[in-house]
Specification:
This protein has about 170 residues and is of the alpha+beta class. The chain has 4 helices and 5 strands. A 3-stranded antiparallel β-sheet has the order 2-3-5. The termini are far apart. The structure holds iron/sulfur cluster (2 copies). The site of one iron/sulfur cluster has 14 residues, from helix 2.
């Protein structure tokens, strides 16, 4: 018992020497680990088009049934994403989500990504449903947002050609 007491006191003395290990949140924010899984973000391509093609693979892969996707048709006059369809409705119920990352793994276009935002709070269960306008990242500076009017016949492919992993 004396041994445990000594170990506890040693830890306390170490903290006195090394300074506080706590962070004054929310003024100070801790950097998250590289593989941290926080709130989802729906990504865009550099040209401003949305990566999500409304295929619902993320919803199918979700073990908590937390994702709801509804797809609509793209046209070249009103284009949201490359290919035939885009997600006209995209919702995630954050009360159901267990942050497993299966949706991210299932997505063929790398559209849904679990980011580093851990600041989720709501007092009403309806507010826990994050809609597309909350999840979709803004277009980069100087880039058009969606929908866009594009040249006909350019964005025919839903899933971009990707290189195989090298390692
Ligand atoms: S992280 Fe897991 S539980 Fe949450 S929405 Fe994605 S697949 Fe579903
Ligand atoms: S986020 Fe990915 S998997 Fe989910 S609907 Fe969009 S493209 Fe499909």
């Amino acid at each position: 018992m004396l041994k445990e007491l000594g170990r506890g006191l040693l830890t306390t003395f170490k903290m006195l020497l090394e300074g506080p290990v706590t962070t004054s949140y929310p003024e100070e924010k801790r950097e998250v680990r590289p593989r941290f899984r926080g709130r989802h973000v729906l990504k865009r391509y550099d040209n401003g088009l949305e990566k999500c093609i409304g295929c619902s693979l993320c919803a199918a892969a979700c073990p908590a049934d937390a994702i709801f996707v509804e797809a609509s048709e793209n046209t070249d006059e009103e284009r949201y994403s490359p290919g035939e369809r885009y997600a006209s409705t995209y919702e995630i119920n954050m009360l159901r989500c267990i942050y497993c990352g299966f949706c991210e793994d299932a997505c063929p276009t790398e559209a849904v990504v679990l980011g580093d935002n851990y600041e989720l709070s709501f007092t009403d269960r309806h507010d826990a449903i994050y809609t597309k306008d909350l999840l979709l990242e803004p277009a980069s500076e100087g880039r058009p947002t969606t929908p866009q009017t594009v040249e006909p016949g350019v964005y025919t492919r839903s899933v971009p050609q990707m290189e195989n992993p090298k390692d």
